[in-house]
Amino acid sequence: MPSPNLDELKARIEAHSRRLTEALEQIRDPRSLEELRNEFLSRKRGVVTLLFEDLKTVDAEAKREAGRLVNALKTEAQSVLDAIAARLAEAAPAAKAGADSAPDPTLPGERRPYGAAHPLRLFQREIEKIFLDMGFAIEDGPEIETDFYNFGALNFPPNHPARDQWDTLYVGDDLMLRTHTSPVQIRVMEKRRPPIRIIIPGKVFRKETPDPTHAAMFFQMEGLVVDEGVTFAHLKGTLEYVLKRLFGEKTKVRFRPSYFPFTEPSAEVDIECLQCGQKDPACRVCGGTGWKEILGSGLVDPQVFKNVNIDPERYSGWAFGMGIDRLAMFSLGIPDIRYFYENDLRFNRQFTLR
Ligand code: PHE
């Protein structure tokens, strides 16, 4: 076999190079790309390998130049292959989306997990609805409070023993997790003038040892009415109406004299123990007393009005704070407050709004 001369080798290399330029434009799928790779770079039969073999027979003086040309072709082949691979990869997602756009109606549907409101939230809404029907508005306030709003403005002097029952976590010298929703009474009265008729649902925190009816975090619903001529009779009538709407016309309710620094007079309200129906002396919910305390209330102390610049000679008001958790327990027949906070979905999903 005659040894190829340089010109002939050059012509072949140029032809291969043109083939690469065309392929760069034309190749549209991975399989053709693979074929092109084999055609040029296959170890045994690839164009480049064969050209290197031919080099051995080229005249000595032309070898150097011929070697350079074959190497250049090899580099060109490699970069063309890389460029095509990159182009195909970029086009791939679009190609895939194209395939997906013809839906297969025989595939099972996509399951969308749906949530459900927590039983406490459901019950909160139930209470809200009763008050909204009576023309109350819903207000909201921060869960981290200053000493002034949680205590001072509510008439707790700095070292008053009433603070002991309301021990909590302090976030700084003057900041604490609020122990009740009453601070929002102050916040609202500071910025609005009577008549005021609001409820304030929210989270509160206390130093409590957990048991079936106590948790260190729970929910309250505060209520506040301020207007001219408001009396204790309004407080009593409204709360009785609300509790009977929640628990039924026959539910026994009692008012007990009590003390709060920010109300005078004050009353605590109990309802009959709906867990044992006042019948079980060993009942874990009422401790055998037959009654369960569900809220604190009273007429707004004149000093509180002075603290927010409302004239106590002209206006009077009443307020209450009820434990949403306890009421929900009775209403939904839940024996332990801690179930609300365990996030066991088997528990949470049992409840729907009536
Ligand atoms: N804030 C009181 C508590 O948490 C309840 C209360 C509210 C009492 C409003 C009177 C008036 O126990």
Provide an overview of this structure.
The model has no long low-confidence stretch (mean pLDDT about 90). It is built from eleven helices and nine strands. A seven-stranded mixed sheet has the order 1-4-5-9-8-7-6, sandwiched between helices. Strands 2-3 form a two-stranded antiparallel ribbon. A hairpin with a 2-residue loop joins strand 6 and strand 7 (about 265-270). About 40% of the residues lie in helices and about 20% in strands. The protein is an alpha+beta fold and about 350 residues long. Helix 1 (about 5-25) runs parallel beside helix 4 (about 60-100) and helix 2 runs antiparallel to helix 4 (about 60-100). It has two domains: about 5-100; about 120-350, 2-Layer Sandwich (BirA Bifunctional Protein, domain 2). It binds phenylalanine. Phenylalanine binds near residues 182, 263, 297 and 319. The site of phenylalanine has 11 residues, from strand 8 and strand 9.
